[in-house]
Amino acid sequence: MPIPPALPPFEREVMERVWERGSTPARAVLDDVNADPSHAPRAYTTILTILRRLEVKGLLTRERGVRSDIYTPAIGRDAYLRERADAEVDDVIAAYGEHALAQFVRHAEGLDPERREALRRLAEE
Amino acid sequence: MTGTQAVRRREAALTALVTTAVLVMVVVAVDAVRWHLPALLAGGHPPPDAHALALLVLLAVQVVVVWRAGRSLLRLRSAQRRLRRLPERGRRTVAGRPVTVVGGTEPRAYCAGLVRPRVCVSESALARLSPEELRAVVEHEAGHVRRHDPLRLAVAQVAADGFGLPRVTTRQAALADLAADAAAVSALGSPRALAAALVRLRDPTPERVDHLLGRPLPAPSRALSACAAGVLAALALLAGALLLLPSDPALPLLLLPAVAVPALLAFRASA
After folding, report:
1. pTM score, two decimals?
2. Residues 6+ apart with CB under 8 A from A82
3. Is ipTM > 0.95 here?
């Protein structure tokens, strides 16, 4: 799987509910989300939209259930957080690597064969 | 020329170039504030003389330089903030030195932190390098820590952005790497493990290979270096004198930026 995308806050919240439940219909996610009194109640269709979006992003799989669709995480929470953290490191270094970072090796033009061979010989001395 | 001497001379040439440019700005600013402020503020009554016009041109250039350097500083601040917030995956001690383990999909090692630089190595680099290669990488980064290279690079970057000379940054980064390589080789007693780590991770620049092999490196001549240093000293004296002089010395302002020529030549001889 490619590196999973960063999520906006509400998509992240919905994803957290799905992770808690494992496999779940949209209705249960709605109940969980609306159990939190700190924000206004969300509509069922809003939750459906968000779940579809998460499915498009490859974070959920959807199966046809008897009465409604069942959503299942395509990636575990720990793996998601870990891969996001990896991507974050890559992003920051790509964006700021030249800015106040002393890296062991930077992106350089290809090394000529003579020097590459000389370096390899030095490594094997 | 031997590696260490060449690196030192090239770094001196780079410092001379940036310092000369900054001192020219200081001289222009002091001249403007101390002797010509009323004429500049009068708004054309009486019409400004050639000197005042030259001042206006140079001051306009300086405003652009300061503006661009300011933007670069802001970017630097956000870079520092994001770097500090990167999640740690643990701490280790390699060859008696503290190392922070970071994530990331690529094997990499770096030194970050303007005030308290620290060595970071990614998990995939730890997995890929032999203990000896890892030690070489950490000694290289420890060389950056001792030299405070993140801070030097930051200053170079702000100057490069301000003056519109991107090669100042790449040159400073290259020199920092050569010096850190020398530190690692001297700590390990041989370039072997460092060469092995480079082969394992990624192609270095040609000059780093030449440096490890003990081949001669380009560097400005002693005469050119001395000339750049002499101009720099004279410029510093001029800036001081301008503050103390009892009357306007009527500097040939438009010729002033030409004093950067020896430093520019020394800089060019470094590549």
Report:
1. 0.85
2. B103
3. no
